[in-house]
Give the backbone structure.
Amino acid sequence: MPASVWTGYLTFGLISMPVRLSSGARGTRISFHMLHRQDNTRVKQQLYCPADGKVIERSEIVKGYEFRKGEYVVIEPEEIKKIEPKTAKSMEILEFVKQDEIDPVYFESSYYLAPDEAGEKPYALLSHAMEETGYVAVAKLSMHNREYTVFLRPYKHGLMLHTMFYENEIREAPAAIDKDQKETLKDGEVKVAHQLIQALAAEWDPAKYRDTFEENVKTLIKARMEGGEVTAIEKAKKPAAPTDLMAALRQSLAAMDGKKKGSQRVEAAQKESEIEIRGKKSETKAVAARKKPPRKAA
């Protein structure tokens, strides 16, 4: 069972049920350590106080808000605890809305919402009712020193919770389309654009997409460990803007004839960005990245 990031109660009218949250998605990244170039020794970061001219311990650190240049008001953890809203332990459903009314730009993070043993039946009832009516629930929740607006939706055999950005956190979109340009579009251009979209249409399958950049980094690390080299990826050329939009649309549509479909097309595109290990370097170069013995003091 994944670790819980929040535990408390979900209330629905006069019904209350114990629930817990666990992370629904987590990005994977290859991490690198910072080393001293001369001897490949891992460096340490220290907390330095310029006023005292010395390194200090983490236990000596407090958090402060800068209200004026160089002036701070210190806030202790106990003070933060005192002002936690009720949503720190209780998540009340405030309203139900249709999911298609919520713009995805508001979505932030995803979590699985699961019931504890005493809340299984009301949880199942809520999930089933939401699935049949097509509504999602909007609630408030406090965690990680922040109160979130969240929405809950049926997902597989339970409920998924999404934290959301607030209205004032959404940046205004730039005017990407000139109104006059939209009015100059020809019916024929729109028709061929529809055909091109249909030619590229496929069923959504997230499993066919992968991070080729991360895979290449892993291949590069493997090559360095084995003393090999990797092939370079050919850089994409800057495409020229079409002078004849209709001709470009027709050429694009014609190029789709006989092309791979769906997952094959995605895999072929990703294959173009893959690297390979080739050749072997000398043993001296292969071990160059290994830790060197510390230098003796003079």
